[in-house]
Amino acid sequence: MANVHANVITAELGTHLRKHVAACLRLLDEGATVPFIARYRKEATGGMDEVTVHNVEMRHQQLTELDKRKEFIVQTIKERGLLTPELEERIAETLDPVVIEDIYLPYKQKRNTRAQAARDIGLEPLAKIIMAQNSSDLDKQAKKFSKAAGSINQAIGGACDIIAEWVSESEKARNLVRSRYQRSAVINSKVIPGKEEEGKNYQNYFDFSEPLRLCNSHRYLAIRRGEEEGILKVSISIDDDEMIDRLSRMFLKSSASDDTAAAIKTAVKDGYRRLMRPSIENEVASATKEKSDAAAIQMFADNVRQLLMSAPLGRKRVLAIDPGFRTGCKLVVLDEQGNLLHHDVIYPTPPANDFVGSADALCFYVDRYRVDAIAIGNGTAGRETERFVRDVVLPRKVQIFMVNENGASVYSASDVAREEFPNEDVTVRGAVSIGRRLLDPLAELVKIDPKSIGVGQYQHAVNQTKLKESLDYVVESCVNNVGVNINTASKQLLSYVSGIGPALAANIVKYRAENGDFTARTELLNVPRMGEKAFQQCAGFLRIPGAANPLDNTAVHPERYELVEQIATDAKADVARLTRDRNLLHSIELDRYVTKEVGLPTLTDIILELEKPGRDPRETAEEIPYDDSIRKIDDLHIGQELSGKVNNITAFGVFVDLGMKENGLIHISQLSERFISSPSEVVSIGQRVKVRVMDVDVPRGRIALTMKGVAQ
Q: What is the mean predicted confidence (pLDDT) over 292-308?
């Protein structure tokens, strides 16, 4: 079916030739990963980027599932002896799952329905007579069936049950109702009596009504969550009377007698209210939920991507502090690779307020371990600890960072943390996680369930399977975009590298522990279960700093080493010189090396890699200072201008860390003077922004901010 899928996807994309889509599908079916195809098979795919390759993969999967459903439907109808060539052709040509189900609906095996009960006693012929609308005396026709039904009225009623089912299964009727729901449906929610106090978080929806097409993702998900928690009663409705009237006109003929018309109207009303409306309402609710899920998942995935791609501090020694009051502040010292060197507890915060002892300890560790930066968790007592640290005169110049500690407690109690630090308690592990997030956010955050890292919106209310698929793709994309040092990467980080996975990642770590650091990419082939295919998929994304072959620390794939060596030979240089001599590198005539397999896209990528071997696409971490006069929400006043850091982006606005317990909210309408459809058009996670206070609600802990008119 890949050829058929290639035709469909090519038409839907409208940006690539069929041969490129077909090549992409072929590579996917052969087991190639999205990062590998996007990075190393540009000639085959016509230069598809990672997003396009991923979309092709997703659509291929959808079409495959649709094919399976079609096969089942065709086989079921065939077994019942009702399949015609025209019907089979129509099913084969249909790409809309909703239409497929409408086609199949009349052929579904029915059990225990009123219509089936009427059929069982032989009333279907009467239903056909009524629908033909040719008889002038309905009672006379019904009398023939009265013995089996019990009476004339019961015979007509049973026939109407069958007609009601026909009405509900009519494609034309369903499309009419579906279209009206899509255009005019209204979503209503009301609080369930007695649930007002329990559901106060949903008070905006206690008596809510809005056209469904205007109800955005976060509102719809909030309403449905309130319904699931038993707080709200929710419905999606249209004008039933108007729809029943339209459907009646659709099924009635002008020749129908009064009693026949009355029977059909009764059947249409029953078919709509009892059968069709609940079905279409559920379908529309499901489609709206799916659309809302997709928007929320995309927002969450974008946030996770930004967080994972946050600027790393790099190879520096870090002292990390997990703040606390009564239990003190857990302190750990990490080396340049994030290895734990020492841990301790200091008590600079209430109730102990041991400023002198804590300052002495801080100075001692900074000096003894030659610490370059201090990472402070932004949770409880975070700001108090930061003020203390900044007031201490340290023995050497040290950068001070506030680090988002969301999920650190999840990591500290995880199997991953216990495996890494079997002899340390959760407080030490949590502090280590905070310090490592500063060193390399990507390498540390991959150890934590993305749903626990403190960004996004309603991630627990959306389809969890689709959320996991989306997040796995984002994490894999980020890891392979940055590249991984094979000699320092954790098992969790390696498992996201193209073509590796958890089992092979564990084998790599075990091999490294038993044999020492890898000195060349080809040494990977010695790892158990590392076959040629897996090596092909992963090698280009793994880095070996200081390797004898400088290409082993670049994104140049080993399959192109021979080509690079030929280029170096032609330039009368070695590969190492190519990585140092930019002028020589840019004097190379790439057209000379174009072949059927290697085109200018690949050659250009090779030159870029040689120009900056081992480069990290992420920026460098910078300190973001807070206004020291702002310590609690009571210190704020309207009109005040402050600096803060974006720590979450939602569909309706942006949350900003101002250096205190409460975050401020910039509503989407206050982000820019121009119209924007998404906050991500203006800001990103971790970005420093300047804001003005618009409103402060101290009892509810809410701070309204604006960026309008504030110089950034």
A: 91
